[in-house]
Amino acid sequence: IKLSVLNSGFVGIGTSSPDSPLDILTSGNSGLEVNAGTSSAHRIYLGNTGGTSVVGTLSNHAFATITNGSERARIDTSGNLLIGKTASNTATAGIELRATDQVTITRSGNTGLILNRLSSDGELLKFQKDGTNFGSIGVLNSDNPFFQGTATNHGGLQCGTNTILPCKSSANADNTLDLGQSDIRWKDIYLSGGAFIGGTGTANKL
Fold first, then answer.
1. Are 90 and 80 in contact (CB under 8 A)?
2. Are 69 and 63 in contact (CB under 8 A)?
3. I want to staple 97 with a disulfide (CB 3.0 to 4.6 A). Which of 31, 81, 185, 200 is the partner?
4. What b-and-e string marks burial along 92-118, b requiring 16 or more CB atoms within 10 Å of the CB?
């Protein structure tokens, strides 16, 4: 069967008994179904038609990809794309691409976001204000995470083995950065060891 049109106006491609205005089936009863339905719900169903239909509320568009028709994603009435959830909120696990230009990720008991850079050291995440770069998070020396500003002479920190080290411009920064300044000072420093002033020899240790 290539094409069938019922008296109801339903069109079937690959099926002689379409149950939607447009019903497309490929081998193994897997295909596409577009339905406005008597339930006044809109749906787009991808998967095996032997499963349960995916039906959302009026003007929600739901997507399913497995045999039983379980919903996997939807576009809600506000234009939000929801993945793994059916309502827009941060209390329920899932991912949202919101129509208000916001991304939210909620996951219970595990990592919510993974960023992976291959081959070279450098930035993993870049921050901008009005289109201008002002900071980044990345990796140095293969496994040291760093956090830094990206403007000229902006300093940063990298986390080494049992150390916190200075960095600048995605590189090590030896003897170039200060801790505080004359009018913006740290209050107290608590050390269990010593402080080296002006050198690294025994005579420089305070």
1. no
2. no
3. 81
4. eebbbeeeeeeeeeeeeeeeeeeeeee
Supply 149's token pair. Answer: 């500003």
Pick the most confident of 65-74, 120-129, 146-155: 120-129
pLDDT tens digits, 173-200: 999 999 999 999 999 999 999 999 999 9
Residues in the chain, total: 206
Neighbours of 68 (CB within 10 A): 11
69, two tokens? 């028709």
> What is the CA 118 to chain-centroid distance, rounded?
18
* Whole-number Å distance between alpha carbons of 115 and 87: 26
Q: What is the pTM of this model?
A: 0.67
Tokens of 4: 């069938």
**Burial category of 48 from C-beta neighbours within 10 Å (exposed 0-12, middle 13-18, buried 19 and up):** middle
Cα gap 152→125, rounded to integer Å? 18
Could you tell me if 70 and 64 are in contact, meaning their C-beta atoms sit under 8 angstroms apart?
Answer: yes
CA torsion angle 154 148 193 203 (round to 10): -40
